[in-house]
């Protein structure tokens, strides 16, 4: 199976003023395209894996029979591909609030504000590049944490629900080193909550 870069479900400028059009275009057409291309290069070497969904391959990453360099490239680029697909999907110019998810968050974390505060802390305190996540863990319970680089929650057997990209390429043109400002403004374009 050859993976393709999915088109965004909205225009590059649709998330302004919170995320600028130029950042969206570069992030999608350069960074996400690069993860896609490099993922395909690795998988071309392992045709036996072609028909297995990428999420399943990530979930059984430790058992994959690849040489170490390819395994690292698969982890980085496969994660980058999956993480960004979700990232684009959960954002949008119009809210489509998932009331059921919002209630579950409130029940699990005490309040939406408590959840948001910890989610933001995970995003802001991630040293270097990475992601802040809300996932459904192996026990089907909501959990949040941060991962480095392009590590996917699927590596831990979790299903990602919300992921915030805190790599500098996601915000640097508009926010420079002001990650906290980017994180706070991102909630305006998260359509699920």
TrEMBL record:
It catalyses: 2 superoxide + 2 H(+) = H2O2 + O2. Keywords: Metal-binding, Oxidoreductase. One of its GO terms (cellular component) is cytoplasm. Mn(2+) binds at residues 27, 84, 165, 169. GO terms for molecular function: metal ion binding; superoxide dismutase activity. Residues 99-190 form the Manganese/iron superoxide dismutase C-terminal domain. Residues 2-91 form the Manganese/iron superoxide dismutase N-terminal domain. SUPFAM superfamilies: Fe,Mn superoxide dismutase (SOD), C-terminal domain (SSF54719), Fe,Mn superoxide dismutase (SOD), N-terminal domain (SSF46609). Its EC number is 1.15.1.1. PANTHER family: 37S RIBOSOMAL PROTEIN S26, MITOCHONDRIAL (PTHR43595), SMALL RIBOSOMAL SUBUNIT PROTEIN MS42 (PTHR43595:SF2). Destroys radicals which are normally produced within the cells and which are toxic to biological systems. Belongs to the iron/manganese superoxide dismutase family. This is Superoxide dismutase.
């Amino acid at each position: 199976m050859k993976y393709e870069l999915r088109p965004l479900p909205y225009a590059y400028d649709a998330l302004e003023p919170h995320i600028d059009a130029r950042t969206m275009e570069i992030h999608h057409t350069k960074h996400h395209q690069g993860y896609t291309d490099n993922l395909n290069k690795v998988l071309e070497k392992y045709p036996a894996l072609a028909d297995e969904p990428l999420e399943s391959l990530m979930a059984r990453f430790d058992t994959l029979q690849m040489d170490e360099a390819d395994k690292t490239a698969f982890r980085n680029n496969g994660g980058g591909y999956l993480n960004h697909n979700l990232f684009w999907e959960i954002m949008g110019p119009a809210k489509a609030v998932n009331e059921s998810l919002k209630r579950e968050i409130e029940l699990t974390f005490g309040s939406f504000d408590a959840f948001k505060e910890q989610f933001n802390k995970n995003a802001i305190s991630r040293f270097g590049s990475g992601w802040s996540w809300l996932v459904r863990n192996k026990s089907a319970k909501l959990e949040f944490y941060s991962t480095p680089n392009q590590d996917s929650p699927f590596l831990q057997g979790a299903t990602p629900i919300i992921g915030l990209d805190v790599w500098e390429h996601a915000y640097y043109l508009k926010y420079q080193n002001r990650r906290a400002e980017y994180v706070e403004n991102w909630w305006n374009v998260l359509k699920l909550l």
